[in-house]
Each structure stands twice: as C-alpha cells, then as structure tokens.
Amino acid sequence: MATVAELKAVLKDTLEKRGALGEIKARIRAEVFNALDDQSEPRPPLSHENLLINELIREYLEYNRYKYTASVLTAESGQPEVPLDRQFLAKELNVVEDASGKSV
Fold first, then answer.
1. For residue 39, which of 31, 45, 49, 99 sits 20 to 30 Å off, Cα-Cα?
2. Which residue numbers delimit the FGFR1 oncogene partner (FOP) N-terminal dimerisation domain (predicted)?
C-alpha cells in the first residue's frame, strides 16, 4: 500500500506533466495579489503610451496562454478589462499587418 508521501509525489508529478500545477500556482498568486491589492490608494493616470504598451504585453501574454499573468497585469496596471481592438492598435502604432501577422 502506498504511503501519503508517495501519493503526494505521484499527484505532484501528474499535475506537472499535465501543466496544471503551474496554472494552479499562477492562479493562487493572482488571487493573493487581488486580495492584497489596496483599492483605496489611487493609481496614477494611465498615459496613452502606457495604455498601448500594456495592451501589447497583454496580447503577448494571452497569445502564449499566460492568462493569470495577464489578469494580474490588468488589475495592477489599471488597463481596461476589455482588450483594445487590434486594428486600433495597428493604426496607433503605425504598423501594417500582413496575412501571416493576423494569425498571431
């Protein structure tokens, strides 16, 4: 019969192999951050440039499926919950998007 320590080790290994352990840890960090975030202290206003930079970072994080990291960025930076339109971003940054870039 397996010991508790052996069962814990197998469970941890299984969660790591499935990629779930990292997601669980990231989710816990995001929830702890949200619980500790002091809403009474006002944030400085978000400049237009920082709004665009944060949106590019969020797009990168979401593209790579770092959804909990993206949620912490959104909460901490004051970025709007709804992502900016990609065409708006391209226009603001003076970027011409070709067919291969649209899939990214």
1. 49
2. 43-103
State how far Cα 65 lies from the chain centre: 8
Rounded-to-integer distance, Cα 55 and Cα 59, Å: 6
Dihedral (Cα; 66, 71, 76, 80), 10-degree rounding: 120
pLDDT 10s digits, 40-90: 777 778 899 999 999 999 999 999 988 888 888 888 888 888 888 888 888
Q: Are residues 48 and 99 in the same domain?
A: yes
Note whether 27 and 54 are same-domain residues: no
- Output 93-101 pairs: Cβ under 8 A, ≥24 positions apart: 93/52
Domain enclosing residue 50, as ranges: 43-103
Q: What is the pTM of this model?
A: 0.61
Average pLDDT estimate for 5-26: 88
CA angle 37–40–42, rounded 5-degree value: 95
DSSP label at residue 103? T
